[in-house]
Design goal:
The complex is a heterodimer of chains A (107) and B (457). Chain A is of the alpha+beta class and 107 residues long. Chain A has a single domain, classed as Alpha-Beta Plaits. In chain A, 23% of the residues lie in helices and 32% in strands. In chain A, strands 2-3-5-4 form a 4-stranded antiparallel sheet. A two-stranded antiparallel sheet of chain A has the order 1-6. In chain A, a hairpin with a 4-residue loop joins strand 4 and strand 5. Chain A is elongated. The termini of chain A are close together. Chain B is an alpha+beta fold and 457 residues long. Chain B has 2 domains: 270 residues, no CATH class; 114 residues, Alpha-Beta Plaits, CATH 3.30.70. Chain B is 28% helix and 25% strand. Chain B contains 12 helices and 19 strands. Chain B has a 10-stranded mixed sheet with strand order 11-12-8-7-1-2-3-6-4-19, with helices on both faces. In chain B, strands 5, 14, 15, 16, 17 and 18 form a 6-stranded antiparallel sheet that branches. A 3-stranded antiparallel sheet of chain B has the order 9-10-13, with helices on one face. In chain B, a hairpin with a 4-residue loop joins strand 9 and strand 10. In chain B, helix 1 runs parallel beside helix 3. Chain B starts with 8 loop residues before the first strand and ends with a strand. The relative contact order of chain B is 0.14. The chains are: A alpha+beta (107), B alpha+beta (457). Chains A and B meet through strand 2, strand 3, strand 4, strand 5 and helix 4 of A and helix 9, strand 14, strand 15, strand 16 and strand 18 of B.
Chain lengths: 107, 457
């Protein structure tokens, strides 16, 4: 079945210089394995495409039912250099929640 | 005098950044019991702005909101014996302390001490440290410091909780620091009250993580909450977070009763992940905290407990952040309406780019965004067939002030010489603003020591 991340997850994003971070959290901890299995660093990199110049790195926090993504080179230089409305990456969390994943499991 | 150990303390977050809700500290000290109020004001950009203010006036250079806040809460804090810890000192902690003594004198308050922590501002000692072998290499790019050394306009070491603990031990009720970490402000009272040792790694890590939850104020208590924002009650009167800390390192995050907002497993998880790098290796001056060891549990309405936190020995270096000027930016916007709102904005964008090109101006980057359509989420958005209104936001960046300033004069003419049904140009010409670039570096902890002074009022 196909689901949108917003249906099983919530998220918060922020900045460290030109890097955006997105914390992706399972709404129900039983859905953490689905996030871990399907929302890989490669998939997130592909999803954001031209919006992220560098790599995407993923860290796992099974204790919180959460993943943390670092999106390098995503903020147009970051800080006061960036010309983006969202120079601090505050809305990247919502952007990731748009992602659709095709899963074998039922939720 | 032997200090008796408390079995619990309540630490209240009063500010999450310079510009936060001004009434939050007052609510924290009046709506329920607290032992400490901690207020974080600093960021990299704030530090460089404060350094500029100090250059213009040697009595400035601190977060002046602290004066507004303490005018209100100082008498209450003295009466209830609540301690205040803040990094509002910015690049001029002594001037900040002086301003606070003046408030106290005007209000007839005395019989308490103000502690001031300095030594983090190394702008004028950079050569001294280079002579002592500090290379200040860029920790992100590996670049040599010599390339930017002469351009540096602010330079601050991130000190931790221990110097605040020293000030508290010397009887300070108000502690003003310069660039102390946000997390250290919350950890310090726990070390002081519970007598934690410098190598109590797990306890220190737990206090640091509590500090991370507290450092953005209302963002832990239902503000900016993505899971279910409509369910958060009464954001208008949001209660800021309170850490209830225990000697064994466990904490409960809560807020005062009869305040708005929400403390739940989900609000705390979102804040835990905010501005997170590698969660297993969260490096602070005091300890390396491991966020993958956190155990959270629901402890009743608006209460979340945290246990199980593990920490590892701290590194032998301090983080240093320096800033320098690196060009200029400006951004302006115009609003287009039906019919053909988006097409008009896109046409205006093309016209403007052509005019800037014809003027021969030099820009490192030009960026146009269509606010109301896809300014934030870019190509992830399906463009709707019909857009009633759209804001064209147009920004440029250049090393040359003149190019950026000239750009500012090209926005308004579009109203009379571009596509129709355009408005929203009431704020005048966009002014160039300075790009502040940052130089992250490390320095050995043993070449520098914070200085603590105590003033008795």
């Amino acid at each position: 079945m196909k689901i949108r991340l917003i249906d099983i997850a919530h998220a918060r994003s922020g900045d460290k210089g030109d890097t955006a971070n997105i914390g992706l959290i399972a709404r129900d901890e039983k859905h953490y394995p689905i996030l871990k299995k399907y929302v890989t660093a490669d998939k997130v990199k592909l999803f954001f495409g031209e919006m992220v110049e560098g790599d995407v790195e993923r860290f796992e926090l099974p204790n919180l039912g959460a993943l943390n993504f670092l999106l390098y080179g995503a903020l147009g230089g970051g800080g006061t250099k960036s010309l983006m409305t969202d120079a601090q990456g505050k809305t990247f969390a919502a952007a990731l929640l748009r992602m659709e994943i095709e899963i074998e499991e039922t939720v | 005098m032997v200090k008796s150990m408390k079995d619990k303390i309540r630490i209240a977050s009063g500010q999450g950044f310079f510009g936060d809700l001004l009434n939050a500290p007052y609510d924290q000290v009046t709506k329920g019991p607290v032992d400490y109020v901690v207020m974080d004001f600093l960021s990299e950009v704030t530090m460089s702005i404060l350094q500029k203010q100090k250059q213009r006036n040697p009595r400035f250079g601190y977060a002046r909101d602290i004066v507004t806040i303490l005018k209100e809460i100082l008498p209450i804090c003295i009466e209830k014996n609540i301690k205040v810890i803040t990094n509002a000192g910015g690049v001029n902690p002594h001037a900040c302390a002086e301003a606070i003594s003046e408030i106290a004198k005007k209000q007839g308050l005395n019989g308490f001490r103000i502690g001031v922590v300095i030594g983090d501002d190394i702008l004028h000692n950079i050569d001294y440290f280079i002579k002592r072998g500090v290379d200040f290499k860029n920790t992100e790019t590996g670049e040599e410091f010599s390339g930017v050394k002469d351009k540096i306009t602010s330079a601050n070491i991130y000190f931790g909780a221990f110097s605040i603990v020293d000030a508290l031990s010397k009887g300070a009720q108000i502690v003003i620091t310069g660039r102390t970490t946000d997390t250290g402000l919350t950890l310090a009272p726990m070390i002081y009250e519970f007598g934690w040792k410098e190598d109590d790694w797990d306890k220190l890590a737990s206090g640091i993580i509590a500090g991370h939850i507290m450092e953005c104020g209302g963002q832990a208590t239902g503000g900016n909450f993505s899971a279910d924002w409509k369910s958060v009650p009464n954001l208008a009167e949001i209660g800021f977070p309170i850490t209830e800390a225990y000697p064994d390192g466990t904490v409960v995050i809560t807020k005062h009763e009869n305040t708005g907002g929400l403390v739940s497993l989900h609000t705390i998880k979102e804040q835990l992940l905010y501005e997170m790098g590698d969660p297993a290796t969260y490096i602070t001056p005091e300890v390396i905290a491991d966020f993958t060891t956190i155990r959270l549990e629901d402890d009743g309405p608006n209460r979340v407990g945290m246990t199980g936190v593990k920490g590892r020995p701290r590194t032998d270096t301090y983080k240093v952040s320096m800033s320098y000027s690196d060009g200029y930016t400006a951004a302006g916007s115009l609003t287009y309406t039906w019919p053909d709102a988006l097409e008009k904005a896109q046409a205006a964008d093309k016209i403007l780019r052509k005019r800037l090109e014809n003027l021969g101006l030099h820009f490192e980057e030009i960026r146009s965004e269509f606010v109301g359509v896809n300014a934030c989420h870019g190509h992830l958005v399906t463009i709707p067939d019909h857009v009633n209104e759209v804001v064209l936001r147009f920004g440029v960046r250049s090393k040359e002030f003149k190019s950026v300033e000239r750009f500012g004069k090209e926005i308004a003419p579009l109203i009379l010489t571009g596509p129709p049904s355009v408005t929203g140009f009431a704020n005048g010409r966009p002014r160039p603003s300075e790009v502040i670039a940052f130089w992250p570096a490390l320095m050995p902890k043993d070449v520098v020591k914070p200085t603590i002074t105590i003033e008795q009022l």
